């Protein structure tokens, strides 16, 4: 007679997909409508920024190809290249993601820097 090992916690183990879905649904249920609106607005602005950066990079790639062709042509004709190599320039930096507070106004979750009360460990560090 063989005794199989029984693990009661094995049935509670969630797959990665189930856990991810569960965690995202819990997070979304905690967001207020204002936070959701701010997050959606941020996503739209972020996608527009990425598109502008893609367009800028595409334009740079086209200019670089034209420059390479002109460079080869100048080399074949044994003359100096008259064009400067194009530069892409700076890309737009990503926008900061909006901060989402899990509570509502008045819950005491808002902490200001001015309201910091020094404790005993802070007093020794000021010297």
Topology, element by element:
Elements: H1 16-30, H2 33-76, H3 120-125
Question: How do you describe this structure in short?
Answer:
By secondary structure, the chain is mostly helical. The protein has helices at residues 16-30, 33-76, 120-125.
Mind explaining what this structure looks like?
The radius of gyration is 29 Å and the shape is elongated. It contains three helices and no strands. It has 127 residues and is an all-alpha fold. The relative contact order is 0.09.
Question: Which terms summarize this structure?
Answer:
127 residues; mainly alpha; 3 helices
Structural class based on helices, strands and sheet pairing: mainly alpha
**Shape from CA axes?**
elongated
Distance between the termini: 73 Å
Percent in helix: 40-55%
The topology string of helices and strands comes to HHH
Assembly of the depicted chains: single chain
* Poorly predicted runs: 104-113
Structure annotation, total helices = 3
**What percentage of the residues does DSSP assign to strands (E)?**
under 5%
- Summed over residues and divided by their number, the pLDDT gives a mean of 76
The overall strand count is 0
Biggest sheet: strands, sense, closure? none
Query: Cα-atom Rg, whole angstroms?
Result: 29 Å
């Amino acid at each position: 007679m063989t005794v199989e090992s029984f693990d009661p916690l094995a049935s509670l183990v969630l797959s990665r997909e189930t856990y991810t879905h569960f965690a995202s649904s819990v997070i979304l249920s905690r967001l207020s409508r204002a936070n959701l609106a701010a997050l959606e607005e941020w996503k739209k602005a972020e996608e527009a920024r990425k598109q502008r950066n893609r367009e800028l990079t595409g334009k740079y790639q086209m200019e670089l190809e034209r420059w390479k062709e002109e460079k080869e042509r100048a080399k074949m004709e044994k003359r100096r290249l008259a064009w400067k190599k194009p530069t892409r320039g700076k890309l737009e930096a990503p926008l900061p993601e909006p901060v989402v507070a899990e509570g509502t106004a008045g819950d005491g979750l808002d902490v200001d820097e001015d309201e910091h009360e020094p404790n005993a460990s802070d007093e020794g560090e000021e010297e």
